[in-house]
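Hello again,

I reread your note about wanting to compare the complex against the isolated chains. To keep things tidy I'm splitting this into two emails, and this first one only covers the full assembly. Below are the input lines as submitted, including protein chains and any nucleic acid or small-molecule components. They are followed by the predicted structure of everything together. The single-chain runs will come separately.
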Amino acid sequence: MSERTRFFLISAASLLLVSAVAFASEADDLMKQGNQFYQDKQYEKAIEAYQGVIGMGYVGTSLYYNLGNSYYREGKIGYAILYYEKALELSPGDNDVVHNLAIANTKTVDKIDVLPKFFLFQWWENILALFPLSGWTYMVYLFYLLLLCSIGLYFFARGLNVQRYSVFAGLIAGVFLIITGSLWIVSLNRELTVKNAIVVEPTAVVKLAPDSTSNDAFVIHEGLKVRVLDRVESWVKIRLQDGKEGWIEQKEIGAI
Amino acid sequence: MRPIRKLSVIVVILALAKVTAAQTFTASVDNTTVGTNDQFQVSFTFSGKDVNGIKSFSPPDFKGFMVLSGPNQSTSMQINNGAVSASATYSYYLQARSTGKFTIGSATINSSGKDYTTQPLEITVVKGQPKQLSNSQGNGTPRDVGDNLFILATVDKQKVYMGQQVTVTYKLYTRLSLASQLQVSKLPSYEGFWAEEINVPNTIAFTTGMYNGKQYRIGLLKKVALFPNQLGELSVTPLVLDVPVQVQSRQRSGGDVFDQFFNDPFFNNVQTFNYTARSNTVKLDVIPLPSGNVPKSFTGAVGDYSLNSQITSTNVKTNEPLTLKINLTGTGNIQLLNMPEIELPSGFDKYEPKTSEQIDRAGTISGTKSFEYLIVPRVAGASQISPIQFSYFNPERRSYVTLSTPPYSINVAQGVGSAEAAGYTKEEIKILGQDIRYIKTADDDLREGGDIQLFGFGFWTAAFVPLFVLGGLVTWKRKQDRLSGNVQLLRYRRAEKIARKRFKTASALMESNDQAGFYAEISQALFGYLEDKLHIPKSEISLDRAVGELQRKNMDSRLIVGLKDCIEKCEFARFAPGSDGKSAMNDMYNQLTNVIIEIEKSMSVRKHV
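Full-complex prediction:
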């Protein structure tokens, strides 16, 4: 490798690094700008800034949470709930997000009765909500590595006691691996199959078929969480929590 | 021949009937050549069997003309020999703005789903005659009229606060007789004001008064209350009126009685012409409200107000609505008043207030504006509705005044219906009064988004590399142990196993009472064990060497003594078998097993603890 090519390679690499860093700091700046706008009660501008950060390809709990707050202040409850839900997706159980989401939910028009869940199912849901999918992936991997380590220790150990301990540790790691593994699979399955969305338009008419001339099935309002079942062109089949189904135009909902 | 002719006549009649029954849409004008000051009429007539099917009428663009009135719609229906015909007419009164040739475009009408269009009309506008209905030769030239007829606009104040009422009065001063109704040709524009028309009688009642030393008949035309909403010098554009004036023509000469008689206006001796009267422009100076000591609850009300409030009940049950009514009474720009903000403790639902106003437009604008709040308590308990404040600026006293309603204590008892009945759950009621938390500013958790490829290369690498590494390491280790001749370790590991095997053989020999065999076996087992454990080559093994090695490893001395004793006994019995045989063998066996177990235990403890 000649001196010149080496120089070019190094400068190209450093340029890439610098531009990546510059990009990141630009997003940080825009985020701070949004926070300042929020502080100054210029919520519309704050929304613009936060959306700009999202437009640059960034995600983040605080980003979604702050954006949700701005929409809430602007009175756009549907969008507020949508972004709170997105924040919750990134960090399930975040105190602030849960609190504000609960408040935003009281402002929604539609009150759909959800049957209380059997306590075991509720526990299961609570455990699942402990980590996002990535969190569960790391947990599974951690126990997998622990299991491998204890197997290795068993083979390399010189004393009987060490071998005994390693078998014990391996058993525990194995049990946890099975538990976290099943939770991981369930949450992965949800991620892949269950798509929820929030109604963002103040009023949305749900049709019986994916066709604007079709009969109206029912009317829902902003902030309602629906499950997305199917998609035909610009129409989405949704199901409410009480089991009602219908078709709605895609632009009237926002996918979490 | 004759019948055929008859038939053809019938056919012709039918065809004619058909033609007459056809629907037509025509435009007409009463005069195609008009003067600039003339009014003329343009009509669009739709005629046909049925005018009920008319859906929409779109007039042409009357470019170059002023629309004085219209569209004036009239419909008529005729039944002629059993045939129904109807027509609908839309007419406009127009006045030309300037001279020249103008075209009035087509009007379109939709009847029973069909569109009909009129032909465009050509209008020639010529320089208009002076606005005289007949030639005036008398003493009434417009210049003279201007002295004898004018409109005066007056204001009650020149300098007003923003939002303070100022009244503009338009009065007609005349020394001439007026022919008929006056016609407003241009209303004043109140730019920068909120204007309220003050009621004046429809017919003008003239009074007599003096102006500039002359006697006039004065009639009140119009009175407007203005509330400025801009600062600085504001002006109100003039009011323009078309006044038909009667002017007596030159008196006939001679003192003939008949002439005198016929000089009476009754006999059409007067000439009428339209005079355009224009009022003066009113100028006002609007000054801002004082900026000191502005109350918090001030929202721009200027005038003089009083505030009172009523509540339907202070002892209610949950979910039973109560009404809080707030009345603002007074003078000022009452229509523009904002409602005082009402703050309720948590656990109350407030609905949009019902606003009603009663405005009295005689002289100063005054009235009452009331706000009716429907309040529904959701949770039981005692709470208080804090006072509602309302502030206004009093221009007479030049100060701000703050009014306040009394606070209301409300006792809410638990009603029959549960809280959920109102559409809220108990949990929701708890958080109803709360606000959202502040944004997160400290967290720096931005990261690049995009879907993380879950089952990508990284995932499988992370999953299998540790597994392969472990497998490789274990195989390598075993191979190393076996091949690289780490026999010592192997032997060390297998020492106990081999010893156990030998002991088994020994115990079999003991059963068959083979003393020599037994002692040889256990002696070998013991030495073999020591060789393996202490890494002593077979050629160098001896009791002293083994004891020395054990001592070097800091073994319990009691153990070493026990071992020594054991081995000596064993050697002795091997070469000089005793008579007591079996029981001695059994003792020996147990003792040696114990020794080996002890050594094993202490060695592994020493090594790994």
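For quick reference: Chain A has a mean pLDDT of 85.

B.
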